[in-house]
Amino acid sequence: MKIQILSAEMASRIAAGEVVERPASAVKELMENSLDAGATEISVWVEKSGTALIRVTDNGDGMTVEDLSLAVERHSTSKIRTEEDLFRIATLGFRGEALPSIASVSKTEIISRPKDAECGYRLRVEAGIKGAPQITACSPGTTVDIRELFYNIPARRKFLKAPATELSHICDVFNRMALAHPSLHFRLYHDGRTVADYVAVSDARDRLHQVLGRDTAKNLIPFSFHESEVSLSGFLSVAPISFPNARYLFTFVNHRYVRDKIITHAILHGYETLLMKGQYPAAALFLGIPYREVDVNVHPAKYEVRFRRQSEVHEAVVKAIRGALKLEAKEPLSRIELRPIPRFDGVMESHFPYTLSSVDRSHEASVTREPFTILQPADGPPGGFFSSMNILDQILGCYLICASSRGLVIIDQHAAHERVAFEKLRRQMEEGEVQQQNLLIPQTVELSPGELTLLEQKVSALQQLGFTLEPFGAKTYAITAVPALLPEGDYSQVVRQIVAELAEVDKSEKLRQHLEERLATIACHSVIRANRQLEMSEMRALLKELDQIDFATQCPHGRPVLLEFSRDDLDRMFKRLA
Ligand SMILES: Nc1ncnc2c1ncn2[C@@H]1O[C@H](COP(=O)(O)OP(=O)(O)OP(=O)(O)O)[C@@H](O)[C@H]1O
Ligand SMILES: [Mg+2]
Q1: How many A from CA of 110 to the centre of ligand 2?
Q2: Using alpha carbons only, how large is the chain's radius of gyration in Å?
Q3: CA distances from 294 to 68, 86, 140 (A)
Q4: Is 95 touching ligand 1 by the criterion CB < 6 Å?
Q5: pTM (2 decimals)?
Q6: In the predicted model, is pLDDT for residue 509 greater than 60?
Q7: Could you check whether the bond before residue 240 is cis, i.e. omega within 30 degrees of 0?
Q8: What is the mean pLDDT of residues 266-280?
Q9: Ligand 1 pocket member 120 (CB < 6 A)
Q10: Nearest CA, atom 4, ligand 1
Q11: How far apart are CA 560 and CA 557, in angstroms?
């Protein structure tokens, strides 16, 4: 016989491998159990980055001695009973696997006492072997001690990263949990030192401050959005703030932290032309959706979910983000500082330990905004921010120097033109067609065989973008019409570029989005590259146009259209302010 049934011990170690990859996974499972037990205070102690000890204490429902014994058995859970339950999961846990898995690869001790019981019980499990429960004095709730994680699987211990890395994973897990539950009190200690102490707060914004630190959090704007059964809320960074990776993207579905491709894609799509290539925003996004609409049983560590109607979710997220950013990108925010924000390393002292009420927050009042759903967009200067400025001069053939009511503003004339052209094209495409100009003398493009086949497939996409092309001989196409916005010139370049850019697109569902991205290429070609002296009337017209479009503060490639220096900025630069 080649096939053998594995021993129970081997089977449980293999199962444990999926659930407990590193100390942070154990922290996550234990904290989830505490949350499911209705705890309002959760403390996490770790020693040696979780390899020596992980202890999670909560003041939740606790367990009776009978339940305690069952809790460490495989497939034992209080959270689901029937098959239907599996498709309406409201708890973080549901598989009945976490405790037995952890207990099979560590020395585990659980002490638990239900609220109405007089005393509690202690249960030890070592490498999956369960001892007898012992009566013990303790306060209501549960404490789980995990000592020497992976002591019986040396091979797995070798896969652990440097202690600082493992600790930062634990901090990440802890912070995400805390972000999702602002009304609960969370504490984290490492080797006897307090790492974080987040007192319960009533406002999600306060929790954001505790977790990310004031400097980062103050640059995020709140938003909220509802559509049919999907509700969205959270905080978003606004341009020019961005990061080289997705480290500051926190996405939650029904209070569960997830890394979901659909949601991440939708967020980035929502930001679209506001970010430079390869840059990510900072965002905390809370998605609420009926339990029956989402399957949480698709990933061993429960980090992924599947939506029944994923395109609806995608669309709602894009709408929510665009809507919120649209209002913000009308003019630069005075509170956005030009200094880079400090790096968040995960490990951070609490910003208001125990003293939240005494912190003076009066100076923040002026910059706090309501979610965009109730924001009054009409409170800016009449005519808009850009038109209200006094144009002083154009310098170096490409920058406009202006005085705003708040200070000095420098505008990159190319970036501004590009954004204006892009928004015009986008509007035209949304309305059904891009305005064209017919060429009196058609221009020809000669193509390589590879380019030729590509172009043949993309003729109709090019038409949607405003380019009309007709075959003209064996290797040549004639351009007979181009978008009206393009200035006179050689159009073969831009056609070639767009064909190359469209090469990877074959799924028609995505075509619309890709076409929109190509509009940025056309917008870019529509701007006269050479530095050119602008008449005062041209500069005024440009500013007026900026007021009339969305996302005026960034060019379609995410570069800033303007830099603003407030009095504070100037005073600081001239060393008048400390
Ligand atoms: N901190 C706790 N307070 C109260 N009960 C707990 C606690 N931790 C675990 N339990 C009980 O033990 C059971 C088993 O926990 P375990 O984490 O192994 O499984 P689960 O949470 O049901 O599912 P999952 O494997 O998805 O986490 C839980 O269903 C719960 O009833
Ligand atoms: Mg659990």
Answers
A1: 14
A2: 29
A3: 30, 11, 34
A4: yes
A5: 0.74
A6: no
A7: yes
A8: 86
A9: no
A10: 62
A11: 9
